[in-house]
Amino acid sequence: MIVLLFAIGLIYALYALWLLSMIVQWHRPDNAPEPWQDGNHLTIIIPFRNEAEHLPVLLNTLGNQKKEAPGVRIILVDDHSTDNSLFIAHQFKEEHEEATVISQVETHGKKQGVDIALSQVKTNWVVTLDADIQPCDGWLNRIASWTINNTHDLLILPLHIGPGKNLIGHLQEVEFASVMAITGGMALSGRPILCNGGNLCFRKEAYERVRHSRKDMHITSGDDVFLLNALKPFGKVAWVHDPHVRVSTAPKSSWKEFTAQRLRWMGKAGFIRDKWLQATAWLAFLANGIFLITAIASLLGNFNPIFFLLLAAIKILLDGLLILRVGKWLCIKQLKRFYLVLIFIYPIYATLFPLMSQFVKPSWKGRTTNNR
What we know:
Blueprint: H1 2-26, E1 42-48, H2 55-65, E2 73-78, H3 85-95, E3 99-103, H4 110-118, E4 125-129, E5 133-135, H5 139-147, E6 154-156, E7 159-161, H6 167-188, E8 199-203, H7 204-211, H8 225-231, E9 237-239, E10 247-249, H9 255-267, H10 275-299, H11 305-329, H12 335-356, E11 363-364, E12 367-368
Parallel strand pairs: 1-2, 1-4, 2-3, 6-9, 7-10
Antiparallel strand pairs: 4-8, 5-10, 6-8, 11-12
Protein backbone atom coordinates (compact mmCIF):
# COMPACT_ATOMS: atom_id res chain seq x y z
CA MET A 1 0.00 0.00 0.00
CA ILE A 2 2.87 2.35 0.81
CA VAL A 3 4.40 1.76 -2.61
CA LEU A 4 1.04 2.50 -4.26
CA LEU A 5 0.60 5.72 -2.30
CA PHE A 6 4.15 6.78 -3.18
CA ALA A 7 3.52 6.12 -6.91
CA ILE A 8 0.26 8.09 -6.81
CA GLY A 9 1.94 10.92 -4.94
CA LEU A 10 4.81 11.03 -7.44
CA ILE A 11 2.45 11.17 -10.43
CA TYR A 12 0.42 13.96 -8.86
CA ALA A 13 3.56 15.88 -7.92
CA LEU A 14 4.69 15.76 -11.57
CA TYR A 15 1.18 16.70 -12.69
CA ALA A 16 1.10 19.67 -10.30
CA LEU A 17 4.52 20.92 -11.45
CA TRP A 18 3.45 20.65 -15.08
CA LEU A 19 0.22 22.58 -14.44
CA LEU A 20 2.12 25.27 -12.55
CA SER A 21 4.47 25.67 -15.51
CA MET A 22 1.47 26.05 -17.84
CA ILE A 23 -0.07 28.67 -15.54
CA VAL A 24 3.19 30.63 -15.53
CA GLN A 25 3.35 30.57 -19.34
CA TRP A 26 -0.19 31.91 -19.65
CA HIS A 27 0.45 34.83 -17.31
CA ARG A 28 2.42 36.77 -19.88
CA PRO A 29 1.23 39.89 -21.69
CA ASP A 30 -0.46 39.56 -25.07
CA ASN A 31 1.56 40.28 -28.18
CA ALA A 32 0.56 42.66 -30.96
CA PRO A 33 2.19 42.92 -34.40
CA GLU A 34 2.98 46.07 -36.28
CA PRO A 35 -0.16 46.92 -38.33
CA TRP A 36 -0.15 45.92 -41.99
CA GLN A 37 -2.92 46.74 -44.47
CA ASP A 38 -2.08 44.31 -47.29
CA GLY A 39 -2.79 40.60 -47.82
CA ASN A 40 -0.87 39.96 -51.05
CA HIS A 41 1.46 37.54 -49.26
CA LEU A 42 -1.36 35.39 -47.87
CA THR A 43 -3.62 32.58 -49.14
CA ILE A 44 -6.50 31.05 -47.18
CA ILE A 45 -7.37 27.40 -47.89
CA ILE A 46 -10.83 26.20 -46.87
CA PRO A 47 -11.55 22.49 -47.42
CA PHE A 48 -15.23 21.60 -47.07
CA ARG A 49 -17.64 18.70 -47.32
CA ASN A 50 -21.39 19.23 -46.95
CA GLU A 51 -21.04 22.60 -45.20
CA ALA A 52 -23.94 24.45 -46.82
CA GLU A 53 -25.13 25.49 -43.36
CA HIS A 54 -21.83 27.06 -42.26
CA LEU A 55 -19.98 28.07 -45.42
CA PRO A 56 -22.06 31.21 -46.23
CA VAL A 57 -21.40 32.63 -42.75
CA LEU A 58 -17.64 32.14 -43.02
CA LEU A 59 -17.42 33.45 -46.60
CA ASN A 60 -19.49 36.51 -45.74
CA THR A 61 -17.14 37.30 -42.85
CA LEU A 62 -14.04 36.84 -45.00
CA GLY A 63 -15.57 38.93 -47.79
CA ASN A 64 -16.07 41.79 -45.34
CA GLN A 65 -12.64 41.42 -43.71
CA LYS A 66 -10.84 41.39 -47.08
CA LYS A 67 -11.35 45.16 -47.11
CA GLU A 68 -8.86 45.37 -44.22
CA ALA A 69 -6.30 43.14 -45.98
CA PRO A 70 -6.82 43.53 -49.75
CA GLY A 71 -5.10 41.10 -52.07
CA VAL A 72 -5.51 37.96 -49.97
CA ARG A 73 -6.31 34.83 -52.03
CA ILE A 74 -8.94 32.27 -51.00
CA ILE A 75 -8.98 28.67 -52.25
CA LEU A 76 -12.11 26.62 -51.59
CA VAL A 77 -11.66 22.84 -51.88
CA ASP A 78 -14.78 20.70 -52.27
CA ASP A 79 -14.53 17.16 -50.90
CA HIS A 80 -17.35 15.42 -52.82
CA SER A 81 -20.15 17.44 -51.22
CA THR A 82 -23.69 16.19 -51.81
CA ASP A 83 -25.46 19.33 -50.60
CA ASN A 84 -25.41 22.93 -51.87
CA SER A 85 -21.83 23.67 -50.68
CA LEU A 86 -20.19 23.65 -54.11
CA PHE A 87 -22.78 26.06 -55.54
CA ILE A 88 -22.15 28.41 -52.59
CA ALA A 89 -18.40 28.26 -53.26
CA HIS A 90 -18.80 29.08 -56.96
CA GLN A 91 -21.17 31.92 -56.10
CA PHE A 92 -18.48 33.39 -53.82
CA LYS A 93 -15.92 33.00 -56.60
CA GLU A 94 -18.09 35.02 -59.00
CA GLU A 95 -18.19 37.88 -56.50
CA HIS A 96 -14.48 37.78 -55.55
CA GLU A 97 -11.89 37.55 -58.29
CA GLU A 98 -9.14 36.42 -55.89
CA ALA A 99 -11.10 33.26 -55.03
CA THR A 100 -10.53 29.82 -56.56
CA VAL A 101 -12.71 26.70 -56.32
CA ILE A 102 -11.25 23.19 -56.61
CA SER A 103 -13.10 19.88 -56.55
CA GLN A 104 -11.37 16.75 -55.32
CA VAL A 105 -11.84 13.93 -57.82
CA GLU A 106 -9.49 11.05 -57.07
CA THR A 107 -8.80 11.93 -53.43
CA HIS A 108 -10.85 12.65 -50.33
CA GLY A 109 -10.30 14.09 -46.88
CA LYS A 110 -9.16 17.44 -45.58
CA LYS A 111 -5.46 16.58 -45.64
CA GLN A 112 -5.54 15.69 -49.33
CA GLY A 113 -7.66 18.76 -50.05
CA VAL A 114 -5.06 21.06 -48.49
CA ASP A 115 -2.30 19.22 -50.35
CA ILE A 116 -4.04 19.71 -53.71
CA ALA A 117 -4.70 23.40 -52.99
CA LEU A 118 -1.03 24.00 -52.14
CA SER A 119 -0.13 23.30 -55.77
CA GLN A 120 -2.04 26.47 -56.76
CA VAL A 121 -0.73 28.70 -53.98
CA LYS A 122 1.57 31.48 -55.18
CA THR A 123 1.99 33.35 -51.89
CA ASN A 124 4.56 32.85 -49.15
CA TRP A 125 2.06 32.25 -46.35
CA VAL A 126 -0.95 29.92 -46.08
CA VAL A 127 -3.77 29.76 -43.56
CA THR A 128 -6.06 26.74 -43.28
CA LEU A 129 -9.57 27.23 -41.93
CA ASP A 130 -12.39 24.79 -41.27
CA ALA A 131 -15.62 25.68 -43.02
CA ASP A 132 -17.59 25.75 -39.77
CA ILE A 133 -15.50 28.35 -37.95
CA GLN A 134 -16.12 32.06 -37.43
CA PRO A 135 -13.13 34.45 -37.21
CA CYS A 136 -13.24 37.22 -34.63
CA ASP A 137 -13.44 40.87 -35.69
CA GLY A 138 -10.27 42.03 -37.43
CA TRP A 139 -8.91 38.47 -37.72
CA LEU A 140 -7.72 38.71 -41.34
CA ASN A 141 -5.88 42.00 -40.90
CA ARG A 142 -4.23 40.63 -37.76
CA ILE A 143 -3.10 37.47 -39.58
CA ALA A 144 -1.67 39.56 -42.44
CA SER A 145 0.19 41.68 -39.89
CA TRP A 146 1.61 38.67 -38.08
CA THR A 147 2.91 37.01 -41.24
CA ILE A 148 4.38 39.87 -43.28
CA ASN A 149 7.86 39.83 -41.70
CA ASN A 150 7.70 36.57 -39.75
CA THR A 151 10.57 34.10 -40.10
CA HIS A 152 8.86 31.11 -38.47
CA ASP A 153 7.77 28.06 -40.45
CA LEU A 154 4.47 27.49 -38.63
CA LEU A 155 2.29 29.66 -36.40
CA ILE A 156 -0.11 27.97 -33.96
CA LEU A 157 -3.31 30.00 -33.65
CA PRO A 158 -6.03 29.85 -30.97
CA LEU A 159 -9.41 28.22 -31.52
CA HIS A 160 -12.46 28.50 -29.29
CA ILE A 161 -15.39 26.07 -29.14
CA GLY A 162 -18.53 28.02 -28.28
CA PRO A 163 -20.49 29.82 -27.20
CA GLY A 164 -22.39 27.00 -25.52
CA LYS A 165 -26.18 27.18 -25.45
CA ASN A 166 -26.91 24.13 -23.28
CA LEU A 167 -25.10 21.92 -20.77
CA ILE A 168 -23.18 19.84 -23.31
CA GLY A 169 -22.23 22.98 -25.25
CA HIS A 170 -20.95 24.77 -22.14
CA LEU A 171 -18.99 21.70 -21.07
CA GLN A 172 -17.30 21.47 -24.47
CA GLU A 173 -16.46 25.16 -24.26
CA VAL A 174 -14.73 24.72 -20.91
CA GLU A 175 -13.13 21.39 -21.88
CA PHE A 176 -11.62 22.78 -25.07
CA ALA A 177 -10.27 25.75 -23.13
CA SER A 178 -8.11 23.17 -21.34
CA VAL A 179 -6.91 21.89 -24.74
CA MET A 180 -5.95 25.44 -25.70
CA ALA A 181 -4.25 25.82 -22.33
CA ILE A 182 -1.98 22.89 -23.15
CA THR A 183 -1.56 23.91 -26.79
CA GLY A 184 -0.46 27.44 -25.96
CA GLY A 185 1.36 26.66 -22.74
CA MET A 186 3.57 23.95 -24.22
CA ALA A 187 4.36 26.05 -27.31
CA LEU A 188 5.19 29.08 -25.18
CA SER A 189 7.59 26.91 -23.18
CA GLY A 190 9.38 25.97 -26.41
CA ARG A 191 7.88 22.46 -26.68
CA PRO A 192 4.87 22.66 -29.03
CA ILE A 193 2.85 19.44 -29.14
CA LEU A 194 -0.58 20.43 -30.48
CA CYS A 195 -2.18 22.67 -33.08
CA ASN A 196 -5.51 22.77 -34.90
CA GLY A 197 -5.98 22.86 -38.67
CA GLY A 198 -9.18 24.81 -38.16
CA ASN A 199 -6.97 27.88 -37.64
CA LEU A 200 -3.38 27.24 -38.66
CA CYS A 201 -0.75 29.31 -40.46
CA PHE A 202 2.44 28.15 -42.21
CA ARG A 203 4.86 29.09 -44.96
CA LYS A 204 4.38 27.31 -48.28
CA GLU A 205 8.11 26.69 -48.60
CA ALA A 206 8.18 24.97 -45.20
CA TYR A 207 5.29 22.69 -46.17
CA GLU A 208 6.99 21.70 -49.43
CA ARG A 209 10.32 21.16 -47.66
CA VAL A 210 8.90 18.29 -45.57
CA ARG A 211 6.09 17.09 -47.86
CA HIS A 212 7.89 14.15 -49.46
CA SER A 213 9.43 12.89 -46.22
CA ARG A 214 6.09 12.63 -44.40
CA LYS A 215 4.67 9.15 -43.90
CA ASP A 216 1.22 10.18 -42.71
CA MET A 217 -0.48 11.24 -45.93
CA HIS A 218 -2.56 8.04 -46.04
CA ILE A 219 -4.07 8.80 -42.62
CA THR A 220 -7.45 10.50 -42.92
CA SER A 221 -7.02 13.07 -40.15
CA GLY A 222 -4.06 14.88 -38.69
CA ASP A 223 -3.40 17.53 -41.33
CA ASP A 224 -2.32 19.73 -38.44
CA VAL A 225 -0.26 17.82 -35.86
CA PHE A 226 1.62 15.77 -38.45
CA LEU A 227 2.75 18.95 -40.19
CA LEU A 228 3.70 20.39 -36.80
CA ASN A 229 5.86 17.38 -35.99
CA ALA A 230 7.47 17.40 -39.44
CA LEU A 231 8.52 21.03 -38.93
CA LYS A 232 9.53 20.85 -35.27
CA PRO A 233 13.09 19.59 -35.94
CA PHE A 234 13.75 22.91 -37.68
CA GLY A 235 12.83 24.72 -34.44
CA LYS A 236 10.77 27.42 -36.13
CA VAL A 237 7.30 26.81 -34.69
CA ALA A 238 5.58 29.40 -32.49
CA TRP A 239 2.32 30.08 -30.68
CA VAL A 240 0.74 33.45 -31.48
CA HIS A 241 -0.19 34.87 -28.08
CA ASP A 242 -2.76 37.26 -29.46
CA PRO A 243 -6.51 36.78 -28.78
CA HIS A 244 -7.32 38.81 -31.91
CA VAL A 245 -6.31 35.89 -34.15
CA ARG A 246 -8.74 33.43 -32.56
CA VAL A 247 -11.63 31.76 -34.35
CA SER A 248 -14.73 30.08 -32.91
CA THR A 249 -16.69 26.99 -33.85
CA ALA A 250 -20.01 25.74 -32.54
CA PRO A 251 -19.95 22.84 -30.05
CA LYS A 252 -21.35 19.47 -31.01
CA SER A 253 -25.07 19.18 -30.30
CA SER A 254 -25.07 15.63 -28.90
CA TRP A 255 -22.89 13.32 -26.86
CA LYS A 256 -22.69 10.98 -29.87
CA GLU A 257 -21.19 13.69 -32.10
CA PHE A 258 -18.89 14.84 -29.32
CA THR A 259 -17.66 11.29 -28.68
CA ALA A 260 -17.01 10.66 -32.38
CA GLN A 261 -15.02 13.90 -32.67
CA ARG A 262 -12.82 13.16 -29.66
CA LEU A 263 -12.19 9.59 -30.80
CA ARG A 264 -11.08 10.90 -34.22
CA TRP A 265 -8.66 13.27 -32.54
CA MET A 266 -7.24 10.62 -30.22
CA GLY A 267 -7.09 7.92 -32.90
CA LYS A 268 -4.17 9.60 -34.67
CA ALA A 269 -2.08 9.87 -31.50
CA GLY A 270 -0.56 6.41 -32.01
CA PHE A 271 1.17 7.61 -35.19
CA ILE A 272 2.85 10.59 -33.56
CA ARG A 273 6.32 9.81 -32.22
CA ASP A 274 6.88 12.91 -30.17
CA LYS A 275 8.28 12.40 -26.68
CA TRP A 276 6.72 15.54 -25.23
CA LEU A 277 3.27 14.77 -26.61
CA GLN A 278 3.45 11.19 -25.36
CA ALA A 279 4.71 12.24 -21.93
CA THR A 280 2.01 14.90 -21.60
CA ALA A 281 -0.72 12.52 -22.75
CA TRP A 282 0.37 9.81 -20.33
CA LEU A 283 0.66 12.25 -17.43
CA ALA A 284 -2.84 13.64 -18.01
CA PHE A 285 -4.26 10.14 -18.55
CA LEU A 286 -2.73 8.81 -15.33
CA ALA A 287 -3.75 11.86 -13.28
CA ASN A 288 -7.36 11.64 -14.43
CA GLY A 289 -7.44 7.86 -14.12
CA ILE A 290 -6.10 8.02 -10.57
CA PHE A 291 -8.66 10.71 -9.69
CA LEU A 292 -11.50 8.52 -11.00
CA ILE A 293 -10.33 5.24 -9.45
CA THR A 294 -9.49 6.72 -6.03
CA ALA A 295 -12.85 8.51 -5.95
CA ILE A 296 -14.68 5.22 -6.52
CA ALA A 297 -12.43 3.36 -4.07
CA SER A 298 -13.00 6.02 -1.40
CA LEU A 299 -16.77 5.76 -1.78
CA LEU A 300 -16.51 1.98 -1.42
CA GLY A 301 -14.32 2.32 1.67
CA ASN A 302 -11.24 0.81 0.00
CA PHE A 303 -9.11 3.96 -0.06
CA ASN A 304 -8.25 6.64 2.48
CA PRO A 305 -10.73 9.48 1.79
CA ILE A 306 -8.38 12.10 3.25
CA PHE A 307 -5.68 11.16 0.73
CA PHE A 308 -8.26 11.34 -2.07
CA LEU A 309 -9.46 14.77 -0.92
CA LEU A 310 -5.84 15.98 -1.00
CA LEU A 311 -5.46 14.75 -4.60
CA ALA A 312 -8.80 16.30 -5.53
CA ALA A 313 -7.84 19.65 -4.00
CA ILE A 314 -4.59 19.76 -5.99
CA LYS A 315 -6.31 18.87 -9.24
CA ILE A 316 -9.35 21.15 -8.83
CA LEU A 317 -7.26 24.14 -7.74
CA LEU A 318 -4.52 23.95 -10.38
CA ASP A 319 -6.78 22.85 -13.23
CA GLY A 320 -9.14 25.66 -12.27
CA LEU A 321 -6.46 28.35 -12.17
CA LEU A 322 -5.24 27.37 -15.63
CA ILE A 323 -8.65 26.97 -17.28
CA LEU A 324 -10.05 30.16 -15.76
CA ARG A 325 -7.03 32.10 -17.02
CA VAL A 326 -7.36 30.72 -20.55
CA GLY A 327 -11.15 31.01 -20.48
CA LYS A 328 -10.89 34.70 -19.65
CA TRP A 329 -8.36 35.11 -22.50
CA LEU A 330 -10.82 33.43 -24.88
CA CYS A 331 -13.73 35.54 -23.52
CA ILE A 332 -15.73 32.52 -22.30
CA LYS A 333 -18.78 33.48 -20.25
CA GLN A 334 -20.17 31.55 -17.24
CA LEU A 335 -16.88 29.69 -17.01
CA LYS A 336 -16.76 29.19 -13.24
CA ARG A 337 -20.22 27.65 -13.04
CA PHE A 338 -19.61 24.99 -15.67
CA TYR A 339 -16.04 24.28 -14.62
CA LEU A 340 -17.38 22.94 -11.30
CA VAL A 341 -19.57 20.50 -13.25
CA LEU A 342 -16.85 19.53 -15.71
CA ILE A 343 -14.27 18.75 -13.04
CA PHE A 344 -16.25 15.66 -12.02
CA ILE A 345 -17.21 14.56 -15.55
CA TYR A 346 -13.91 15.17 -17.33
CA PRO A 347 -11.87 12.41 -15.59
CA ILE A 348 -14.41 9.84 -16.83
CA TYR A 349 -14.05 10.49 -20.55
CA ALA A 350 -10.41 11.58 -20.24
CA THR A 351 -9.76 8.02 -19.04
CA LEU A 352 -12.23 6.08 -21.21
CA PHE A 353 -11.79 7.88 -24.55
CA PRO A 354 -8.06 7.09 -25.00
CA LEU A 355 -8.86 3.44 -24.33
CA MET A 356 -11.85 3.44 -26.71
CA SER A 357 -9.82 5.11 -29.47
CA GLN A 358 -7.67 1.99 -29.73
CA PHE A 359 -10.66 -0.15 -30.74
CA VAL A 360 -13.31 2.14 -32.25
CA LYS A 361 -13.17 3.69 -35.72
CA PRO A 362 -15.55 6.68 -35.67
CA SER A 363 -17.17 8.01 -38.83
CA TRP A 364 -17.04 11.56 -40.17
CA LYS A 365 -19.77 12.74 -42.55
CA GLY A 366 -20.56 9.25 -43.74
CA ARG A 367 -16.96 8.01 -43.88
CA THR A 368 -15.08 5.74 -41.53
CA THR A 369 -11.84 7.40 -40.53
CA ASN A 370 -8.55 5.78 -41.46
CA ASN A 371 -6.40 6.44 -38.42
CA ARG A 372 -4.56 3.12 -38.49
